[in-house]
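Progress report, Aim 2. The chain analyzed during this reporting quarter is listed below.
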Amino acid sequence: MENNNKQDLFSLNGKVIVVTGGTGILGESFVNILAHHGATVIILGRNKKVADERVKTIIATGGKAYAAICDVLDAKSLEHAKAEIVNKYGAIHGLVNAAGGNMPGGVLDP
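Predicted structure tokens for the chain:
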């Protein structure tokens, strides 16, 4: 079936998308564009204040978002966040991994 509506081509309406590192600089871009395209964005990060601010901004512009505070380096923390999200939304439809940050040791010299 051909999709004649270009607006629907990138629609994420009804999808729950988790963004690890959603409180970081790169994660902010991901959460904003996902919300713009209709996803319910789960902002996963360690900084509750930033996560809550991003949720508030997305909701104020008509989007859907939720903050799940978690450290991706801690398996129990991840398991708890997953259970919290699935309990609230019923499913997770996608994952964007933006956690990690920009650390000098992570860059390779030429």
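The mean pLDDT is 89. The first strand starts at residue 16 and ends at 20. These observations will guide the mutagenesis work planned for the next reporting period.
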